[in-house]
UniProtKB/TrEMBL annotation:
<protein>
    <submittedName>
        <fullName>Type I phosphodiesterase/nucleotide pyrophosphatase</fullName>
    </submittedName>
</protein>
<dbReference type="InterPro" id="IPR002591">
    <property type="entry name" value="Phosphodiest/P_Trfase"/>
</dbReference>
<dbReference type="GO" id="GO:0016787">
    <property type="term" value="F:hydrolase activity"/>
</dbReference>
<dbReference type="InterPro" id="IPR017850">
    <property type="entry name" value="Alkaline_phosphatase_core_sf"/>
</dbReference>
<dbReference type="Pfam" id="PF01663">
    <property type="entry name" value="Phosphodiest"/>
</dbReference>
Length: 490
């Protein structure tokens, strides 16, 4: 790497809400983030992927491609080839229903090495092929070329009667993955200080410790990516909008990272900082009234449940990604699709039902129906050309001449297409109206105060902070960040 080329620290904050950021900054509670924004730039409306679920969004943030290409459709989905529900650990109950062995294998190994598309590269694979040194701290998506042993925590081995074994994984040149893997030395020793219920080291406190360790090495990484998950759990439980405790704690963590350089100006002289959310969250109405009971609404059809083996007498499977769900048709019957749409439209908590047929994408809502496809007609600000027919209110679209303007559902046409074109997507994708989530396999038993998953702006818009680099991004989407990051190494 040329001596005048800055190294990059790339931080992904799970459930980062722009209004929460603005609220806390206005109260003077975020000195580190305020400094980084003052010295750089803030985009308040970077558009997430759809569904707004962490595995899908972090896959885009690690590859720079849409769900169509990276092929990770959500937190919970149905694998048609293996005839089973894939769940990366949405809830403790689903963890048990799907089996601890299968869930751990999916999360630790299959997500990166079997299910993430092999036709695309991660940022680690791409930069290391060009001679750069990359490292990752607690990433969900970590695929690289160096072989490691993922050490499964003893408690999980014990629970599974030692049927769960250590795994060979492949990651970037530098990798710290909670209790599963740490570089040798004092960092490996320090992980023992963290108790099992702190997510086996996948938490902000240990992520910062590992980041400080990498920055303290004589040969520090050209790219150091860091995943910070704690904001998500707090926002789910308490307040997704103005979640002061989690953002003030995050700000202190970021300050301790900048302190590694002696002073903050020196940090920006030596590094580019990119900080982005994977998605945001929207507030739920209290209690179980927040649940749209789609399994009951579609009770006419026999449904595959988590942990059940596939049988030919099941009609559908409903995979909940909280404020969005996939419906897969396992046994098709004549008129089934039309009936499912009609049944779902009777539920006031449902927002959109989307599906693909005959080269068109269809959207049904209680505000009317809309269809669209790629082709000449109207264009959006991302360079996409669309043919659109039907009720524009279904996606809160406005047509100004040949231009498409988006309202409550940012970049909805492209995001729906990228979701449904994923080979692992359901036959239908269903979203909930603000305040609600969709019941199904993987849904929480007791909804909290916040959630995400849908196309709605509250779930979909995240802050993007770039500091230490003169370049800026215009109208950013999550899928644009990796290409921007690569440009810093040209």
């Amino acid at each position: 790497m040329p001596e005048n080329r800055k190294k990059v620290i790339y931080l992904v904050v799970d459930s980062f809400h722009p209004r929460a950021l603005e609220h806390c900054m206005a109260q003077g509670k975020l000195p580190t983030l305020s400094y980084l924004i003052q010295k750089g730039s803030l985009h308040k409306a970077c558009i997430s992927a759809f569904p707004t679920a962490t595995p899908t969004c972090t896959s885009t943030l690690a590859t720079g491609v849409s769900p169509t290409e990276h092929r990770i459709p959500g937190m919970v989905w149905y694998h048609r080839g293996e005839r089973r529900i894939v769940d990366y650990g949405s809830t403790w109950l689903s963890f048990i229903k799907n089996g601890i062995i299968q869930t751990v294998q999916d999360f630790v190994y299959n997500l990166n090495h079997k299910q993430l598309g092999w036709q695309i590269q991660t940022i680690y694979e791409n930069l290391e092929s060009k001679g750069y040194y990359t490292a990752a701290v607690n990433p969900l998506i970590y695929r690289g070329n160096k072989e490691y042993i993922a050490h499964i925590p003893f408690i999980l081995k014990l629970i599974t009667l030692f049927q769960l074994e250590d795994m060979t994984i492949y990651g970037p040149k530098g990798l710290s993955l909670g209790r599963t893997h740490q570089p040798p030395g004092d960092l490996r020793q320090s992980i023992k200080e963290f108790r099992y219920w702190r997510k086996f080291g996948i938490n902000d406190k240990f992520a910062v410790k590992a980041t400080q360790w990498f920055l303290g090495q004589q040969n520090s990484p050209d790219l150091l990516s860091v995943y910070l998950p704690d904001t998500d759990s707090i926002a789910h439980a308490k307040d997704p909008d103005c979640c002061e405790p989690c953002l003030t704690r995050l700000d202190k963590h970021l300050g301790s990272i900048l302190n590694c350089f002696g002073n903050w100006d020196k940090a920006l002289a030596e590094r580019v900082f990119i900080i982005v959310g994977d998605h945001a969250q929207s507030a739920l109405i209290p209690g179980k009234k927040a649940l749209a009971n789609v399994p009951e609404i579609l009770g006419l059809y026999s449904q595959l449940r988590a942990g059940e083996d596939f049988t030919h007498d099941k009609d559908i499977v409903i995979c909940s990604n909280e404020r969005m769900a996939y419906i897969y048709l396992l046994r098709y019957q004549r008129g089934m699709k039309e009936n499912i749409v009609a049944c779902l439209l009777k539920e006031k908590k449902i927002d959109q039902i989307v599906w693909k047929a005959d080269g068109w994408y269809h959207v049904a809502t209680d505000r009317g129906k809309l269809s669209f496809s790629m082709g000449t007609g109207h264009h959006d600000c991302y360079g996409n050309q669309w043919q659109v027919k039907g009720e524009k209110g279904a996606l809160d679209l406005k047509l100004d001449g040949e231009s498409i303007q988006y309202g409550d559902y940012p970049n909805a046409l492209e995001r729906i297409a990228q979701c449904l074109d994923n080979p692992h997507a359901g036959d239908f994708a269903v979203t909930a109206k603000p305040g609600f989530i969709i019941h199904g396999e993987g849904a929480p038993r007791w909804p909290g105060r916040g959630s995400h998953g849908s196309l709605y702006r509250e779930d979909s818009l995240v802050p993007l902070i770039i500091s230490g680099a003169p370049a800026k991004m215009e109208k950013p989407r999550l899928m644009d960040i990796v290409s921007f990051l690569k440009s810093l190494f040209l």
